[in-house]
Amino acid sequence: MAQSNTIQIKNRKAKFEYEFIEEFNAGIILHGAEVKSVRAGKANLADAFCYFKKGELYIKNFHIADYKYNTVLEMRPTRERKLLLKKRELRKIHKIVKEKGLTIIPYRVFINERGWIKVHIAVAQGKKVRDKRQSIKERESKREMARAKKIDY
Questions:
Q1: Which run of H or of E encompasses 133?
Q2: What are the tens digits of pLDDT across the range 63-120?
Q3: CATH code, domain carrying 75
Q4: Has residue 58 been placed in a domain?
Q5: How far apart are CA 40 and CA 145, in angstroms?
Q6: Quick one: where's region Disordered (predicted)?
Q7: Phi, psi torsion values for 11, nearest 5 degrees
Q8: Rounded to two decimals, what is the model's pTM?
Q9: Which structural domain, as residue segments, surrounds residue 98?
Q10: 3-state secondary structure of 2
């Protein structure tokens, strides 16, 4: 399916703000108009976060804009949505988050090869200021090396 590579909604600040410890791909429960909006790229992960409620994982503040041709249902753009993982994965994530006080961050939304919308989540730990400075230094050095390569040709 050619469409699988075209839709990728990312939370770009997540890599800068957090250090990812473990990553998972989860399904998400959406209504019809929400699926169409995500496929159109009208979604935003900037303020989204995940949490456990009664042993199940939910995503909150994942903004999906209203589909402009929707006439059936009126949805709240930032309502909580259930994430679908295997029980083994849920237990593992819950145990890690409970013990170490880590957080669960949704990093990107994509469409897999079967056409299903998936959310890539990460168990993460917040970076300290010095870690952020180190990330900036690494990024700057990579840019300078890339510039130097372009000049050499």
A1: helix 129-152
A2: 888 887 776 666 777 788 999 999 999 999 999 998 887 899 999 999 988 989 999 9
A3: 2.40.280.10
A4: yes
A5: 36
A6: 133-153
A7: -100, 90
A8: 0.77
A9: 2-127
A10: helix
Q: How many domains is the chain built from?
A: 1
Residue 9's CB: how many other CB atoms inside 10 A?
A: 20
AA identity, residue 38: V
> C-alpha angle 105/115/75, rounded to 5°?
60
Tokens of 76: 């709240």
Q: Is residue 147 part of a domain?
A: no
Q: What is the pLDDT of residues 52-69, one digit of tens each?
A: 999 899 999 998 888 877
Q: Is residue 138 part of a domain?
A: no
Token pair listed for 60: 């909150």
Helix, strand, coil share (%) of the chain residues, nearest 5: 35, 35, 30
Q: How many CB atoms lie within 10 A of CB 140?
A: 10
**Quick check: helix, strand or coil at residue 74?**
coil
With beta carbons less than 8 A apart as the criterion, state whether 81 and 31 touch.
Answer: no
